[in-house]
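Work Package 3 committed the consortium to producing structural models of liganded targets before the mid-term review. Because experimental data for this complex are still outstanding, the team generated a predictive model from sequence and the ligand definition alone, so that downstream docking and mutagenesis planning could proceed in parallel. The input record is reproduced below exactly as it was submitted to the modelling pipeline, together with the SMILES string for fe (ii) ion.
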Amino acid sequence: MNDELVFHQFVRVHTGCASYLIGSENTGKCILVDPLIDTERYEPFLKEHSLKVVALVDTHTHADHLSGLRYFSSLFPQAVIAMHETAPTTFQYEKLKDGARLDDLISSSSFSIKVIYTPGHATDHISLLLEPPGPRNRLLLSGDCLFIGDVGRTDLGRGDNDLMYISLFQKLLSLEPSTEVYPAHVGAKHFLATEKVRTQIGIERDTNPALQVKSKKEFLKYMTEGWPPKPPYYEQVVNVNLGRISLTEAQEEVLRIEKEKPP
Ligand SMILES: [Fe+2]
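The resulting structure, written out as tokens with the ligand in place, is given here.
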């Protein structure tokens, strides 16, 4: 790894939710991607590396857990909140388009962070491609589009199977096979049959059941069969994450799901 780049994966073990920190050792600035609400999880790492959070990015409007965007925003009022331009939030944010670059935010001179619009799981879904210099593999933060051994479900109200097909087969699978993949959910606790915390595009292309289909028709069939129960209170979780319901107004059940094990 080059000297400047700081990259770290944070996993909430009991739910499998994963979030990421991308920072610069040189500038002391970092971006949090898909931050969770338990902000204390990140504090020791930020302190150890003397990093300041300058941007908060959600890969999409989450439906299965509360987003930490606004929690961190109160701790780091100068930090920019950024999401895809179609996210229908009630709060202001920096509207990202396909192809946008985020490395300027942390004043990085040696690596780039590019937005890839990957709708399907949700209409406002983006993935982030981190490109370190030299021969090092690229890193893809794939959100809930591509998982380890599966793909994101599309039945939580804002999904689209046709768009998911394009995002997976035309966009993500066109990346170099060596690209390392870091999803927003990892591990067996999220119904995924593996404890791994990262994968590669080439491995998923060759082994992921959702990507072994022979036709789009077969893919559409895969996307509509055999999914686990929908997460509890997901509609309310979306409304909280969009700012339509304040956290104090949210039902206790919504707050409780952050602490419970998944069904
Ligand atoms: Fe999601």
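Reviewers should note the following from the model. Residues 236 and 251 are 8 Å apart (CA to CA). These observations will guide the Year 2 experiments.
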